[in-house]
Amino acid sequence: MFYIEPVYQFDDFHEYWQPVKPDTSVEPKRSKVEIFKEHSDFIRYPLNEEMLTDAPNINEAATQLIKFHGSYQQYNRDERGTKSYSFMLRTKNPCGKVSNKLYLVMDDLADQFGIGTLRLTTRQTFQLHGVLKKDLKTVMSSIIKCMGSTLGACGDLNRNVLAPAAPYNRKDYLFAQKTAENIASLLTPQSGFYYDIWVDGERFLTAEPPEVVEARNDNSHGTNFVDSPEPIYGTQFLPRKFKIAVTVPTDNSVDLFTNDIGVVVVSDADGEPQGFNLYVGGGMGRTHRLDSTFPQMAEPLGYVPKEDILYAVKAIVVTQRENGRRDDRKYSRMKYLLSSWGIEKFRTVVEQYYGKKIEPCHDLPEWEFKSYLGWHEQGDGALFCGLHVDSGRIKGAMKTTLREIIEKYNLNVRITPNQNIVLCDIRQAWKRPITTVLAQGGLLQPRYVDPLNLTAMACPAFPLCPLAITEAERGIPDILKRVRAVFEKVGLKYNESVVVRITGCPNGCARPYMAELGLVGDGPNSYQVWLGGTPNQTSLAKTFKEKVKIQNLENVLEPLFYHWKRKRLSKESFGNFTNRMGNEKLLELVDKWEGIPLSPPRYNLKLFADKETYESIDALAKIQDKTAHQLAIDIIRNYVASHQNGIIQ
Predict the structure, then answer these.
(1) Exposed (0-12), middle (13-18) or buried (19+): which is 343, by Cβ within 10 Å?
(2) What is the pLDDT, as a whole number, of residue 6?
């Protein structure tokens, strides 16, 4: 592997050492995408020219650049013959916040220019599929003019910043959401390429908080490119995608440890936010049968006071910008830099760009997964309602119903990291009529939805994703029904569940490597089976079996669920059970499985009706070195045998 080793020099004007840029006299090997970025005039060329042609698609360089604008070129892989090209657009919605106006526009655009559906993503954004090249500018400009954006939803830069979707009127939640929005603003590209291409250079920007502008412009520790239109990103941006999540203690609705940076609000005894714990190096993507690629959970970096959070995040981003690999994109995520350096060296380098020592992390309570489904008090007199959406796909009657309610009551919404939607700011008097209309549109309260569905996720995969190896979104409904059938067969109750996540390839968009049962496409109608994630998403799963054909899934699941039912500890989740048992033992159970054993007749005998009888039998039993139960059974057997022989003693 190729890494650029950082070098440091002492600066008399600062207390800490300052990074020196690596020696560039010998040109390091670079990937093709790095060359595209260098020659692009800050992500403009040749996309600007390709958008003017009559062709239904764009060339290779433009295909890479349009990702920075929030779009992927795709084609329908179900169709044979000439490729029917279209584009997927992904929005940028920090905290998953979507205004009433933007939701209605996205709903319209899906019908007018897409495939008639909206998709909620695992990063709290919309995806709009099926947009033709000739309509791209119209769709993009419509989103921008409604104060929406797709800028940076894809590409080698900071992606959408996650935060809990619950609109609680609480100091910690509000502070987490404000911080997420400030981080998103800090790391938004500044050179104007997005607006130049889609709205002819017209800017549609809201006023930035002064602390964001100050942190972005600060170059006291060598973080910025001087006189560059992109002071943080430069011409090359980041080596790969970069993901950040912000949350509060206990709330792991954001899958915190799967992000490059996890940010957790730390408050004092009075509930006043004081600072943040930082976690670094999470990431899901990997390549099949290449052990040097792997999913990774973020690890603790340390604590920073609240006024320093933007500077600390910027320092981490710059550390990855300067040292992440740019020669082989399989190894370009920050997790591989952490893996190579170790956390101590990584922290030392971050501190050079931050300008201060990073304190140890503060202790936090246990994490929980929070779905926010159903009705909840916001804390300001209003209600919010979380709605489950299978695989995040809003379509048909559901789409019509949501449109009707959101438009009629002028509601803002939020998208959750679990592909669900939250209706916000609902008056108490609206609860009953909204509940009725939702039910008529198939949007049921969580108690009426199979618990397996409530926590399941799948990526889109076929037919439009070019990376898909097998089905995910289209296959998960049937797979969940089959899991439920196995549950019933082995005697598990309806209210019991496991976290199931399915992806069509190993890139991990639906975060299968944190699931209790992860299915990762590894061939046509074939999956790797991953076990060992936990319900609160704090444990990394491990590969259990390779190349399991979809038709043979029960051969693996039935023995696993059967033994979980019978050998688990009190309240032990499936993920914790598989971790305790270990892969070797579980593989033995699966390989030797011959079906559910026939159970012998079970008798429920109440041997002792009163305390006195028990004590008398117990005293006699001790003389014979037996338990009261054993002696009672012996007496009953002798009595039955004597009747069968016609002898009454």
Answers:
(1) middle
(2) 43
- Using CA atoms, how far apart are residues 407 and 616, in angstroms rounded to an integer? 76
Q: What is the pLDDT of residue 159?
A: 98
Helix (H) / strand (E) element for 179: namely helix 171-186
- The radius of gyration of the chain from alpha carbons, rounded to an integer in Å, stands at 29
Say how far apart CA 202 and CA 188 lie, in whole Å: 17
Q: What is the pLDDT of residues 236-261, one digit of tens each?
A: 999 999 999 999 999 999 999 999 99
Q: Are the C-beta atoms of residues 119 and 205 closer than 8 Å to each other?
A: no
Give the start-end residues of each E strand in 11-67: 17-20
Mean pLDDT value of segment 134-163: 97
Task: Tokens 């939702």: give the residue.
Answer: 438
Q: Provide the token pair at 42.
A: 């800050």
pLDDT tier for residue 1 given thresholds of 50, 70 and 90: very low
pLDDT at 468: 96
pLDDT at 455: 97
User: What percent of the chain has pLDDT above 70?
Assistant: 91
| Mean pLDDT of the residues in the chain | 93
Task: Locate 622 and state its tokens.
Answer: 């001790």
State phi, psi for 128 to the nearest 5 degrees.
-115, 115
Q: What is the 3-state secondary structure (H, E, C) of 439-496?
A: HHCCCCCHHHCCHHHHHCEECCCCCCCCCCCCCCCCCHHHHHHHHHHHHHHHCCCCCC
d(CA 94, CA 158): 11
For position 11, what pLDDT does the model report? 41
Residue 68: HSE in the Cβ half-sphere, 13 Å Cα cutoff: 32
**DSSP annotation of 13:** T
Give the span between the Cα atoms of 542 and 286, in whole angstroms.
Answer: 13
Let me know if 518 is exposed, middle or buried by CB neighbors in 10 A (0-12, 13-18, 19+): buried
Tokens matching residue 414: 């939020």
Helix (H) or strand (E) holding 130: strand 126-131
Q: In what order do the strands lie in the sheet with 71-75?
A: 71-75, 85-90, 126-131, 118-120, 393-394
The DSSP symbol for 42 reads T
Q: For residue 270, which amino acid is it?
A: D
